[in-house]
Design the sequence.
């Protein structure tokens, strides 16, 4: 998950990855939000600007198109700083930012558009 060029989308029906990420990010000030939160973009802006990890929990089979610039890592330089245009605002990008996306769906079917933007990691436990 750390060496990938794409942000991880974790299939986590037992919520083990969710607990692990929460424990790992507690020290760094992990920001936790859901796709239907009113202030979702504001949370993303804050996490980007201050270099905090962000956990987006319980996503469905489609991701919000407003997050595309972040998922595609469409950063650019402005006045010598690395920035990202998210919605109507331009946010400075801090190097400590990490994005984790989790879903509780046991067997999600993501279309090609989503699969290209994220690294899918399966955390599901399978009985033998």
Sequence:
């Amino acid at each position: 998950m750390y060496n990938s060029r794409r942000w991880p989308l974790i299939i986590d029906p037992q919520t083990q990855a969710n607990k692990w990420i929460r424990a790992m990010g507690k020290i760094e000030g992990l920001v936790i939000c859901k796709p239907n939160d009113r202030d979702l973009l504001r949370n993303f802006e804050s996490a980007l600007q201050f270099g905090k990890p962000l956990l987006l929990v319980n996503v469905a089979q489609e991701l919000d198109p407003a997050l595309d610039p972040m998922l595609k890592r469409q950063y650019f330089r402005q006045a010598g700083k690395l920035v990202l245009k998210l919605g109507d605002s331009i946010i400075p990008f801090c190097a400590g930012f990490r994005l984790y996306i989790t879903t509780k769906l046991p067997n999600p079917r993501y279309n090609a558009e989503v699969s290209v933007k994220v690294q899918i990691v399966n955390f599901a436990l399978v009985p033998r």
Notes: The helical segments are 16-25, 40-50, 68-71, 112-117. The chain is about 25% helix and 30% strand.
